[in-house]
Structure formats: structure tokens, C-alpha cells
């Protein structure tokens, strides 16, 4: 019987593991952990506190070098704030301003979002009215105040109209842009699943435009405060604007700055609330 050849002798039986060592497998590294944001937030807060301290120190230095008429002392401003809150003056003025601001902002938000959805959802209508919107938006709001006084008088109704006129256009323009620039991929995906035009509009385009709408609301809220002060200065003097002009006419700078601080705090709180809402409703879009 013939001897098996060399290839048969060296071959391993079927199913037997190879004698050669298996290649080494590189260890899988765990995904890198994100650095905690707490340190970044602490650093931001530290810078903000440092800036606030620098502003207070600058006020005190200017008060020492130039006197109370140029810049009141921060201590005097705090003392006057306590007095105005204690006797109800600040609370009453804040309530009057919030009434005008709230009504004007609600009216501006409802009309701005409604008309913006119409213009963005129907581009032909938007193109027809676009020159008129831009023309009115470019006109200073103070130019309409005499007309508003003739039509609505000097009291709350006229002030609400002034605030509405100041805030409606940022909301309208942002809403129109958000609807018109909705995500085309989402629209095509919804169409491929057989979504009707109404479903496509209300369940895809409007939710996708929500960050733009909320951004317009945030800008409109800031403009509302400016419009409220202008209305209270030019019409029947009331609210925070009225207290500010009274203090300015009497050169009571500590009282003047006490009102200004309340207005700044009010604007900051409204902006922070709308920014949180913007992050909340825009989170799904970022993850997409």
C-alpha cells in the first residue's frame, strides 16, 4: 500500500482547530464619558457674579467722584427699593405694567403666530403681503402713537395697542420663516406614509417650526417691555414707566434706579422662562 504523501500527513483532520494561533483581538474601549457640565455652569455663574460686583463697584466709585445727581449710591438704591416695596408703590406700579404688558403680549402672540402660520403655509399669500409687513416693521413704533391716541385714547386700551404693535412683527416674521423652512425630509417622509395635507401641516410643519416660533416669542417679550415703558411715558403716566419719569423729573436718581432694576429683573425673568420653553420644545429637533 502506498504511503500517504506529505500533504496528507501534515493536513489536520476535518473539524480540528488550526495549529496556528488566533490573531489577538483589540480590547474594546468604553465610550468616552462626557465631562460634567457643573464645572462650566459654576464658571459661568462666577463670571456673572464678578461682572455684577464690578458694576456695583463702578456705581459706588462714580457716586464718590461725581455725586448723587450723576450716579446714586447702591446703598441708597437698595434703601429706596425697600421703601417703595413697603408702602406699596412698587407693587402697584408693577401690577399696572404687567396688565398692559400681558394683554399686549397675548394679543401679539396670538395674531403673530396665526398670521405667520398663514403666510408660511401658503407662500403665495406670504409673498403678496411681504412688502407691507416689512414696510410697517421698518417704521418706528413711536410714529403710530399720535394715531393710536386719536383712535383709542390715553389709557389701557391705547397702551395695549402700542405694546401689540411693538411685539407682533418679530413673532410674525419668525413664525413665517419657521413654517416656510420646515424640514423637507420630514415632509417627504410623512407624504410617503400617506399623510393628508392637514396632518402634514399641523403634525409636521408647525411642530418643526416650534423653535423659531418660541425664538420670536422671546424677542417679542423683550420688545413688549420697551413698548410698555414707551406707552406709559407718552400716555397717561402709570406703572413702572410713570414712576420712572416722575423720579427723573424730580432728579431722584435712587428712586429712578430702583424702578429700572425692577424692569431689568422683569425682562430677565420673562426671557429665561421663554428660553426654557424653547429648549423644552426644541429638544426633539436637536436629537433628530
From TrEMBL:
Residues 11-27 have a biased composition (Low complexity). Residues 94-278 form the ABC transmembrane type-1 domain. Residues 1-39 are annotated as: Disordered. One of its GO terms (cellular component) is plasma membrane. It is found in: Cell membrane. Belongs to the binding-protein-dependent transport system permease family. This is ABC transporter permease. It comes from Pseudoroseicyclus tamaricis.
Amino acid at each position: 500500500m502506498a504511503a500517504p504523501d506529505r500533504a496528507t500527513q501534515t493536513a489536520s483532520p476535518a473539524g480540528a482547530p488550526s495549529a496556528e494561533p488566533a490573531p489577538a483581538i483589540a480590547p474594546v474601549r468604553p465610550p468616552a464619558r462626557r465631562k460634567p457640565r457643573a464645572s462650566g455652569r459654576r464658571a459661568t455663574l462666577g463670571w456673572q457674579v464678578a461682572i455684577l460686583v464690578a458694576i456695583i463697584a463702578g456705581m459706588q466709585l462714580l457716586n464718590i467722584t461725581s455725586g448723587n445727581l450723576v450716579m446714586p449710591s447702591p446703598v441708597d438704591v437698595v434703601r429706596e427699593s425697600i421703601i417703595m416695596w413697603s408702602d406699596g408703590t412698587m407693587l402697584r406700579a408693577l401690577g399696572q405694567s404687567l396688565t398692559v404688558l400681558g394683554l399686549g403680549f397675548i394679543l401679539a402672540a396670538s395674531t403673530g403666530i396665526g398670521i405667520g402660520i398663514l403666510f408660511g403655509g401658503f407662500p403665495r399669500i406670504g409673498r403678496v403681503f411681504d412688502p407691507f409687513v416689512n414696510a410697517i416693521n421698518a417704521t418706528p413704533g413711536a410714529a403710530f402713537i399720535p394715531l393710536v391716541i386719536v383712535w383709542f385714547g390715553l389709557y389701557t386700551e391705547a397702551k395695549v395697542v402700542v405694546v401689540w404693535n411693538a411685539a407682533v412683527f418679530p413673532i410674525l416674521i419668525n413664525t413665517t420663516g419657521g413654517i416656510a423652512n420646515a424640514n423637507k425630509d420630514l415632509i417627504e417622509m410623512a407624504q410617503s406614509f400617506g399623510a393628508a395635507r392637514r396632518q402634514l401641516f399641523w403634525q409636521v410643519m408647525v411642530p418643526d417650526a416650534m423653535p423659531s416660533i418660541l425664538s420670536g416669542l422671546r424677542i417679542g417679550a423683550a420688545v413688549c417691555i420697551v413698548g410698555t415703558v414707551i406707552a406709559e411715558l407718552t400716555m397717561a403716566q402709570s406703572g413702572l414707566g410713570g414712576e420712572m419719569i416722575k423720579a427723573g423729573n424730580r432728579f431722584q436718581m435712587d428712586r429712578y434706579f430702583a424702578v429700572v432694576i425692577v424692569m431689568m429683573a422683569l425682562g430677565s425673568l420673562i426671557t429665561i422662562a421663554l428660553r426654557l420653553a424653547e429648549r423644552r420644545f426644541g429638544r426633539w429637533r436637536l436629537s433628530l
